[in-house]
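Worked example

This section walks through a single chain of length 126. The input is the sequence exactly as stored; nothing has been trimmed or padded.
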Amino acid sequence: MLVLDSGGVTHLAERSARAAALIQALRAEGLWPPVVPTVVLTECLTGEGPRDAGQHRFLRTCAIAETVPLALARRAAWLRARARKGSAVDAIVTATAEPGGTVLTGDLADLRALASHAMNVTIEPI
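Given that input, the structure is written out below as tokens.
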């Protein structure tokens, strides 16, 4: 499973050759579509239609996790307390990737701190 944080969404939503190549590589590896928890949208969207158009277009290709179940919220809280680093959204992204998933991020330090307490979660730079 591939999970995106706000940096992952923002980067992959760009209409660039680099983003297109990365999406193609992820598809070839069977890591598509990525999962995007709705809480991530709070960080990567502005709420202004025209400014968010690229992200909305990209998000149609993703699997959107529309709710945070109680067990996932508790697990994210546990990870965040152990790591003593990262936002609640970062912790939810990391917990969503458990077990055995990968998170694409621009926030390596916080996500790696959280993943160090998670079950087999890999953090990759975007």
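What to look for: Helices lie at 6-13, 17-28, 38-44, 49-59, 70-83, 88-97, 108-115.
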